[in-house]
Amino acid sequence: MDNLLPLLSTAFAFLAGYFIFMGIFPSRFLEEASSMKGEKDTMVSLIKELLIKKMSVKLKKYMSEKFELSVRKQLIMAGEPEGLKPEDILSMMVLSALLGIAFLTLILLMLGKSLTIAPFGAVAFFLTRLWLRDQVKKRHFEITRALPYAIDLLTLSVEAGLDFSAAVGMVVEKGQPGALREEFSILLSEMKMGKTRSVALRNLMERVDLLALSSFIRSLIQADKMGTSLGKILRIQSTQMRIERTQRAEKLANEAPVKMLGPLIMCIFPTIFMVLFGPIVYKFIS
To answer: Are 75 and 33 contained in the same domain?
Structure first.
């Protein structure tokens, strides 16, 4: 057990440094650097073109159909970040595993220890999928926050006399920039290309796969089938969305004290006990 302490300390120090760097310099730092000298001149672009794209061509034939469908769905839900494809994700997973194994091997050589590194390589292999899942969660959270405002704007546009296509165009033009606005822009483009309202809405529901948005879209499709007034349905959905937002805020507020117990017990209480009882214990020992 004592032999593992230096290895674990080094690994945790590396992870801490990585997360601190990502917290201080987020992804927009790389985007700004890319815009200064051109995307092709950045290190990120070089890695993407020379490593990921080259590996993607060779690894594509080893990719199963189930894996491709699963990753493609996640990429669509995440908004297709950086224009990545399923084979690019597989290349990133393999590259992550190789870098993880190489890093741990270097640490073991420096410490003069021997340890099985296969589990660490497997963990590093799935880090890319965790990153992709995190991108989906971030996009869903962004859409959830922007949805009530978009529904209110859609409701006001329809009640003002605009048809559904013009109301969606108003949301695209006047709405808040973000993922939901992009999805409504795609919805508007599909309707302009000749797709029916129901088909375009179903495509939007399948792309995002978010419960709140899916419930809203199903009500619109049902109103379209039954011939119900669209303005009335939108007003009901707007009110319901506002109530759900209030309930969600109350739920998060009630969860905050429970979530604070962990840092209090693990970090703050031990420090307080050391300050209060440390001198007393030291006096008894000495």
So the answer is: yes
Are 154 and 114 in the same domain? no
97 with 171, same domain?
A: no
Classify residue 273: in a domain, yes or no: no
Yes or no: say if 186 and 202 are a contact pair by the CB < 8 Å rule. Answer: no
- Domain boundary at 90, 125, 160, which? 125
* Burial class of residue 237 in the structure, from the number of CB atoms within 10 Å of its CB (0-12 exposed, 13-18 middle, 19+ buried): buried
pTM for this model (two decimals):
0.70
Residues 6+ away with beta carbon under 8 Å from 102: none
Q: Name the domain count of the chain.
A: 2
CATH of the domain at 208: 1.20.81
- Rounded to whole angstroms, how far apart are CA atoms 247 and 253? 10
Domain holding 226, by residue range, is: 140-245
125, 158, 177 — which closes off a domain? 125
Helix (H, G, I), strand (E, B) or coil at 194: coil
Whether the Cβ atoms of residue 16 and residue 117 lie closer than 8 Å to each other: no
Q: What is the pLDDT along the chain (286 residues), one digit of tens a residue?
A: 455 555 555 555 555 555 545 554 444 444 444 444 444 445 555 556 656 666 776 777 777 888 888 888 888 888 888 778 888 888 888 888 887 777 777 777 777 766 666 677 777 788 888 888 999 999 999 998 888 888 888 888 888 888 888 888 888 888 888 888 999 999 999 988 988 888 999 999 988 888 888 888 888 888 878 877 788 888 888 888 888 888 888 888 888 888 888 888 888 888 888 888 888 888 888 7
